[in-house]
Amino acid sequence: IRHLLSGADVDAGTANRILDTAAEMATVAGREVKKLPALRGRTVVNLFYEDSTRTRISFEAAAKRLSADVINFSAKGSSVTKGESLKDTALTLQAMGADAVVVRHPASGAPHRLAEWVDGSVVNAGDGTHEHPTQALLDAYTMRSRLGRLAGLSVAVVGDVLHSRVARSNVLLLSTLGAKVTLVGPPPLIPVDIVAALAPGTAVCYDLDAVLPQSDVVMMLRVQRERMNDSYFPSAREYARRYGLDGTRMRRLPEHAIVMHPGPMNRGMEITPEVADSPRSTIVEQVANGVSVRMAVLYLLLGGNNR
Ligand code: CP
């Protein structure tokens, strides 16, 4: 593949190749010399129009561990504030020799437009409420390393599906890899028609307590109140009562089940500190795995035998 824009861009073979390569990359993190020369002479631009902690830093760490040159661009403090367009910004960065552009943008579809304008590879690091494919890949990696497989797993994705690019990319990728996804949350936050079009086998349930005993994985989503309007704006207490994962609910999961969250979390709303900090939680592990998975993605886009 030349670009990674959507969970739909990777078939099962490509996804497994990325996950296997990430497992090899993870061994680098444990070594005394953490750097590989694979992308020496290549330039990776991190183009961020929206705030990020995990994704931006892990792409930077991933590119540096592969010996690439890294340019970090944040829209704040750039000529974007003077009205420069995404296209002009992209062409400026290309003129500086970008081999890959990692882009986060508040507009759904922005990475797809970018891919039409630049010669290098484009990686979607989160576009609006649309997709976040490397998050789905690191989530799949985490499930596989904790539970040993993806095919046949029952994965409950819980909460604000409507606004979640993480949920969309996970639905696409997990379906490709043979997991069974159930979306759980209040009806106004589950866009049944959109999800059915994305992955027809996806189930929907509005009762979290009914789903937990059958789940191998429960993936809690951040309630994105900044993207909500007045038609549905739950109080933290009401939301937590119906759809929050607390210690009592966590104990209804099978013993082997894991709890995931892409971060950042609203502690006390969709997840309690007791759950977030419990041994079942993979939240910190997901962050660490993100570096290996993003190393694999950059390596396969820029340094593998695709180009
Ligand atoms: N999970 C995730 O995308 O986090 P950031 O917004 O901090 O990058």
UniProtKB/TrEMBL annotation:
Q: Which Gene3D superfamilies match?
A: Aspartate/ornithine carbamoyltransferase
Q: Name one GO cellular component term.
A: cytosol
Signal peptide feature range:
none
Give the UniProt record's GO annotations in the biological process aspect: 'de novo' pyrimidine nucleobase biosynthetic process; 'de novo' UMP biosynthetic process; amino acid metabolic process
- Residue ranges of every copy of the Aspartate/ornithine carbamoyltransferase carbamoyl-P binding domain listed in the record: 2-144
For whether the record's keyword set contains Acetylation, the answer is: no
Aspartate/ornithine carbamoyltransferase Asp/Orn-binding domain location is 152-301
Q: Which reaction does it catalyse?
A: carbamoyl phosphate + L-aspartate = N-carbamoyl-L-aspartate + phosphate + H(+)
By its UniProt entry, which SUPFAM superfamilies does this protein fall under?
Answer: Aspartate/ornithine carbamoyltransferase
Q: Where does L-aspartate bind?
A: K82, R165, R222
The superkingdom of the source organism is Bacteria
Q: Which residues bind carbamoyl phosphate?
A: R54, T55, R104, H132, Q135, G263, P264
UniProt keywords, alphabetically:
Pyrimidine biosynthesis, Transferase
Supply the Pfam families for this chain.
Answer: OTCace, OTCace_N
Name the top EC class.
transferase
Q: What is its EC number?
A: 2.1.3.2
Question: Which pathway is it part of?
Answer: Pyrimidine metabolism; UMP biosynthesis via de novo pathway; (S)-dihydroorotate from bicarbonate: step 2/3
Query: What molecular function does GO assign, one term?
Result: aspartate carbamoyltransferase activity
Q: Do you know which NCBIfam families this protein is assigned to?
A: asp_carb_tr, PRK00856.1
Share what the entry says about its subunit structure, partners included: Heterododecamer (2C3:3R2) of six catalytic PyrB chains organized as two trimers (C3), and six regulatory PyrI chains organized as three dimers (R2).
Q: In which family does this protein belong, per the annotation?
A: Belongs to the aspartate/ornithine carbamoyltransferase superfamily. ATCase family.
**Function in brief:** Catalyzes the condensation of carbamoyl phosphate and aspartate to form carbamoyl aspartate and inorganic phosphate, the committed step in the de novo pyrimidine nucleotide biosynthesis pathway.
Put simply, this protein is called: Aspartate carbamoyltransferase
- Recorded source organism is Salinispora arenicola
- Gene behind this protein: pyrB
